[in-house]
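forwarding from the other thread:

> can someone predict this with manganese (II) ion?

sure thing
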Amino acid sequence: MLVVMKPHAGQPEIDAVIEKIRSLGLTAHPIPGAQRVAVGITGNKGGLEPELFTTLPGVADAIRVSQPFKLVSREVKEEDTVIDVGGVPLGGKDLAVMAGPCSVESRGQLLEAAQAVKASGARFLRGGAFKPRTSPYEFQGLGEEGLKLLAAAREETGLKVVTEVMDVEHLAMVADYADVLQIGARNMQNYSLLRQLGRVRRPILLKRGPSATIKEWLMAAEYVVSEGNYQVALCERGIRTFETMTRNTLDLNAVPILKALTHLPVIVDPSHGIGLRAHVPAMARAGIAAGADGIIVEVHPRPEKALSDGQQSLTPAEFDELMRQVRVIAGAVGRGV
Ligand code: PEP
Ligand code: MN
């Protein structure tokens, strides 16, 4: 249920609603809005009587939330969530552009990539220090050394760092270095990790599991938000289908569906989505045209030498050309870059 306060309701009236919710053994989630405050309620098994709340002073309405994902739904918060990543917006009118190598490999490789993507207009640097590889014999990432290189690249360029955290064990360490914590597709339903992410004060980029439905994905986001971290963005990165020509099938259907169902920002990853360098720009353009709030793109100074995902990494020159196109499309759909 969502308790909607009147526009002029004061803190004592909001506190009284929260107190009432707690007295029923339920959890209150105050949600500030542009016009008025609302208080989400979770923890109830069945439906609640609206009169429990509509009779309290300052309450405009008490509405049943029909979706199983409550706090991330647009029913509970109508306005788009804009995450403030140390002064750089993630969500909102301006597109968030994240770019960089799949894996952090060396100081030289990372700095070269960072400087290039910055020059082309990206404001976030991506790069994995902990890599979830399909084979245990493949490059697993540089670990903390990679995180240090990401911090050095941030120092040098001012770009915000997006990097993956794979497990609860390394969460505190990765959160120390990262500006945005990426949750990989393989971990989307790692509920103990999701719960812990709800307790850190860092924005989360939650990638879609390769076989997760949109509903399961939103429920995964709900795990994080229900623990108190509202700074969650969703990333469509392709799902597994019967198609074998492409690495995954980038499900751009998910973009308008998500934009209707949730207030969370939606990012598209065309690199993992199609997995083929030649076609990454087309899918990046399509993602923005479909209404995504940003893109995350793999860029490597020498893709043929990359230790992971070279086949889908753009060269800096290709990324620069993509950014030129992105600006045109953004303008056509009323967005800035
Ligand atoms: C990545 O971003 O390099 C990555 C491993 O992505 P995903 O979790 O979507 O496979
Ligand atoms: Mn990758």
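The mean pLDDT is 97. thats all i got for now
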